[in-house]
Amino acid sequence: MSLFLGFDASTQSISAILLGVDGDRAHVVFQSSLPFDEAVPQYGTRHGILPGSDPSEAVSSPLLWADALDVMLSTIAACGLDLRDLAAISGSAQQHGSVYLNASAQSALAHMDSARAPGDQLAGCLSRSVSPIWMDSSTSAECAEIAAKVGGNEALAARTGSRAFERFTGPQIRKFFKREPDAYAATDRVHLVSSFLASLLAGGHAPIDPGDGSGMNLMDLSRSDWWPQAVDATAPALDRKLPAIAPSWTIAGTLSPYWQARHDLPAAQVVVWSGDNPCSLIGAGLVREGVAAISLGTSDTIFGLMQEPRIDRTGTGHVFGAPTGAFMGLTCFSNGSLARERVRDMFALDWAGFSRALAATPAGNDGRVLLPWFVPEITPSVASPGLRRFGLDEDDGPAHVRGVVEAQMLSMALHSKWMQVAFDTIHATGGASANREILQVMADVFGAEVRQLAVGNSACLGAALRARHARAAAEGRPLDWDEVVRGVVEPLEGTLRPDRRRHAMYQELMRAYAEFEARALGN
Ligand code: ADP
Ligand code: XUL
User: What single DSSP character describes residue 45?
Assistant: First the structure.
């Protein structure tokens, strides 16, 4: 049996999945997850973030990620499996976060002392002690400056897949250059969280993959290479500080002697890491156009593979590179579980009562519409939140329950049209995907089959599957992505099928919904 290891360094935790492959059969043989706050408490993070006084800033520590990787590797080394079979390692990381290294990093990464943890050995390589992460929203000025220099946000989106966003790496790099010019000048290499951790494993600078590179406002999507105009608009000499961009299946190197000695591991191949969303694309089995994933977590997200890099002209959606070499579209909604919970609590229901209310109300809610913007909404862009009711009686609990779920599904269908993909199948993930009444509305609105996925951490699973794919390609026997996910990314029993009559009704209701939405936005 060959083993393939996938990591996921997310906002709050580090996870690992070992995939065992025997002939053409593959399955998960080990998985583990450790919250950063508990695994490396010496850093004093709360939910993975360093405490600070400015609520618009969110930073973490690169050394924390290095030490957490070390703790997870010691857990893996003790898992009881014969790790001499470990063939390849890859990873997934929260997108957009950046790590700033000085010129001593190259040598330090290659010559670490296996008797000591990695964190304090790397402290001297940092030109910035902290890493801004995706929850940082402090760079509005830099977004405007970069967009203006490249000819506006539409031009930036057309080239890089997204307009300027505060959390994206380019605006963050610009802020660092403006606030700390000397430290910026001392920066030899700007890594993403993903490429930093790949570098650490390989013992030398690793490239960035197009999936994570497209979360920077710096990469020309169609060429999978840096866009010089955006790079110049961001900070001086940045072209000399960025790693190369390489296909997601590139072998970045061999597990360094440090890790081999420290945890008694073999010389496994280290595959380029990617962002959590591109990795989730693989881990959720979205390897053909027409299958979407809808994650019903704290916020809701819809994403899927796109063969062409079609852009969202409204500026809310993102196009990222996909680990298959194609592209992926992604649109995020902040009022997800949060809004469902608010409606549930307004009428003193539990989830069972919420489901009963959904089942007891007619599809289409007799034409009544609710816009459930409890908090500022990302899609469509709503800065001043508030509930908007059209025809709904304030005391009618069941109609509100149906109203929130229908509005969310109609909004997701409406605001993913820019991807120009007809979704026939949806893989549902996240906490609320356990609710079959919600999934039935999803099936009816999209006119698609809905399946709930079995493995929870699709980003981590995607990383392990990518390790397997890259290893096979490197050995000259490439695998189709279908083969890579088959038997591993399996939906649970009980596919929900759309009702054709209800789907036709929702197509009509979509028009009314779009009108209400436009009116509420003042358009
Ligand atoms: P996160 O984005 O934090 O990872 P999860 O994917 O774990 O979130 O989803 C957690 C959410 O799932 C909870 O906040 C809750 O609102 C929702 N949830 C859990 N069970 C149900 C259910 N039966 N019906 C609807 N929502 C549910
Ligand atoms: C995507 C985004 C988040 C992060 C962390 O643009 O900001 O999904 O990748 O999960």
Answer: -
Q: What's the pLDDT at 132?
A: 98
Q: What percent of the chain has pLDDT over 70?
A: 100
Total count of residues recorded for the chain: 523
Helix (H, G, I), strand (E, B) or coil at 304: strand
Phi, psi for residue 284 in degrees, rounded to 5: -100, 5
- What single-letter amino acid sits at 459? A
CB-based burial, 307-322: b 16+ in 10 Å, e otherwise? eebbbbeebbbbbbbb
CB-CB contact of 299 with 333 (8 Å):
yes
Distance in Å, CA 355 to ligand 2 centroid: 29
3 beta partners: 20, 86
Give CA separation, 377 vs 382, 475, 496, in Å.
5, 47, 29
* Residue of 231, 234, 258, 257 lying closest to 243 (CA atoms): 231
Summarize the confidence of residues 236-249 as an average pLDDT: 98
Residues 6+ positions from 38 with CB-CB distance below 8 Å: none
Residues 309/485, Cβ–Cβ less than 8 Å: no
Within a 13 Å sphere around the CA of 364, how many CA atoms are in the beta-carbon half? 14
The closest of 166, 143, 136 to 59, measured between CA atoms, is 136
- Strands (E) across 361-465 are located at 369-373, 386-390, 425-429, 449-452
For residues 161 and 214, give the distance between their C-alpha atoms in angstroms, rounded to a whole number.
Answer: 7
The residue behind tokens 């008797």 is 115
Q: Rounded distance, CA 488 to CA 25, Å? A: 9
In whole angstroms, what is the distance from residue 124 CA to residue 495 CA? 53
Task: Round to whole Å and give the CA distance between 502 and 499.
Answer: 5
Assigned token pair, 219: 């990469």
Prediction pTM value? 0.95
DSSP state of 273: P
Contacts of 461 (CB under 8 A, 6+ apart): 6, 17, 19, 28, 282, 283, 455, 488, 489
Pocket perturbation via mutation, ligand 2, pick of 49, 65, 96, 214 by most ligand atoms within 8 A of CB: 96
- Cα distance between the two ends of the chain: 60
Output the pLDDT for position 34: 97
Q: What is the DSSP string of 427-442?
A: EEESGGGG-HHHHHHH
Give the residue whose CA is nearest to atom 1 of ligand 2. Answer: 95
Choose one of 14, 15, 131, 134 to mutate for the ligand 2 pocket test, by most ligand atoms within 8 angstroms of C-beta: 134
Write out pLDDT tens, residues 261-311.
Answer: 999 999 999 999 999 999 999 999 999 999 999 999 889 999 999 999 999
Estimate the crossing angle of helix 436-446 against helix 351-360, to 10 degrees. 40
